[in-house]
Design goal:
By secondary structure, the protein is mainly α. The chain contains five helices and no strands. The longest helix has 72 residues. It is elongated.
Length: 188
C-alpha cells in the first residue's frame, strides 16, 4: 500500500505549502543586519577603549619618567652639595692635616665627577646600567642587598617602641633570673 501523498514533516512537492513566507525572510534578514551592526559597534567600542587605555598608560609612563628624571637631577644636585662640603672640609684641614685635606679634595673630585655623570643620564640609562652591573656582578649585588636588608631591619627594630607590658615582662624575667642565680651562690 504505497500511497503517493507526502508524509507529515517531509518535504513534498506540494504547491499549496511554501517553505518560508516572504515576511519571515525579511524579518530574519533584518535581525541578521541588526546583530551585525551590534557586533560592529561592540568591536569599535572595544578598539576605542583599548586605544584610550594605551594612550592613558603611555601618558602615565611619560609623566612618571619625567618625574623620575627630575628626581635624578635633584639627586645629582645633592651629590654636588656633598662634593662642595668635602672641599670646604679640605680647606679647613689644610693647615692642620694637609695629607687628609688632599684625600678630601680627591674624594670631592670623584664625587663631583659622579654628580656630572648622574646629571647626564636618564632613568632608562640608570636602569640599563644597574641591570648590566647586576648581570656582571650578581654576588656583589646580592651581598649589598642582604646588607641593606639587615641594616633596614635593625633600624626598624630599634626605632619601633615596645609596648609597656613587654618592657615590664622583660624586666621581671631579668630580675627573676638574677635572683635565682644569686640564690645559687649564697647557698640557698
Amino acid at each position: 500500500m504505497n500511497s503517493q501523498q507526502p508524509r507529515p514533516g517531509s518535504s513534498g512537492s506540494s504547491s499549496t505549502h511554501s517553505s518560508n513566507p516572504p515576511a519571515s525572510q525579511d524579518l530574519r534578514a533584518k535581525a541578521g543586519e541588526a546583530a551585525s551592526k551590534v557586533t560592529d559597534a561592540a568591536r569599535q567600542a572595544t578598539d576605542q577603549a583599548k586605544q584610550a587605555a594605551s594612550s592613558l598608560a603611555s601618558d602615565a609612563t611619560k609623566q612618571a619618567k619625567g618625574f623620575l628624571n627630575m628626581q635624578v637631577t635633584a639627586g645629582a644636585d645633592m651629590v654636588d652639595h656633598v662634593a662642595e662640603s668635602a672641599r670646604a672640609a679640605a680647606e679647613s684641614l689644610d693647615q692642620n692635616a694637609p695629607q687628609l685635606a688632599g684625600l678630601m679634595r680627591n674624594a670631592a673630585d670623584r664625587v663631583e665627577e659622579f654628580s656630572e655623570d648622574l646629571r647626564d643620564q636618564t632613568v632608562d640609562d640608570l636602569l640599563r646600567t644597574a641591570s648590566d652591573f647586576t648581570r656582571k656582578q650578581p654576588a656583589l649585588v646580592f651581598g649589598l642587598a642582604s646588607l641593606a636588608g639587615f641594616l633596614a631591619f635593625r633600624v626598624l627594630k630599634s626605632s619601633t617602641p615596645r609596648p609597656s607590658w613587654e618592657q615590664e615582662w622583660e624586666h621581671d624575667s631579668r630580675t627573676r633570673r638574677f635572683e635565682s642565680r644569686a640564690g645559687q651562690f649564697h647557698g640557698a
